[in-house]
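If I may wish for something, please sit down with the protein I am sending here and say whether tokens and residues agree:
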Amino acid sequence: MEQNQNPQPPVFNQPQGQQPAQPYQPRVMARPMMEPVEAVKTCFMKFFDFNGRARRSEYWWFMLFTLIVSWVFSFLGNMTPVFTYIGLIIGMVLWIPQFAALTRRLHDRNHSGWWVFAMFVCTLVAYGSFAVMLAPHMSALMGEGDNMAMMLIFADAVQENPQAMSVAAVAGVCYFILFIITLVFAVKDSHWTENKYGPSPKYQ
């Protein structure tokens, strides 16, 4: 009688109701969410601080604060043009703590702050290209109050300097892509472990 040359291994019945062993996870506790005033105060105290980590509540409360400031000066600018320029200056100053807070938020997810630096470069390139393109027409733009006339002046500026417009468009697209990437990073929860940027600001 011919024997089987490739015998199959025996199959044993698994014990019923027995769960596989779970990997060990240390117990961690989350600190309470930062209050809005505390978050805004923290971001202003860390105005130029691009080091360390920032939890979601710190970052998003400060973003809401900057958005409200922008809305307020936009509303006041409709009544008095001087508030438009004041709001523009304040908005440009607030870029610094915004980028600093976003850098710390990415650090909290263990991502590099170079993503934020790339966004900043794209912003400068886009605004710089628009400035070069519109510089010869600034006197005409400042003297016009009609939106249609301003659009015609802008169209003339684009025709006169299409290279600057192309650079601004490319920088704008790059900024949008980087914005989506950093937004995904910023909405995720903190890592509960310590990383190279410091201990977790949320978990202990």
Observations:
- The first helix runs from residue 36 to 45.
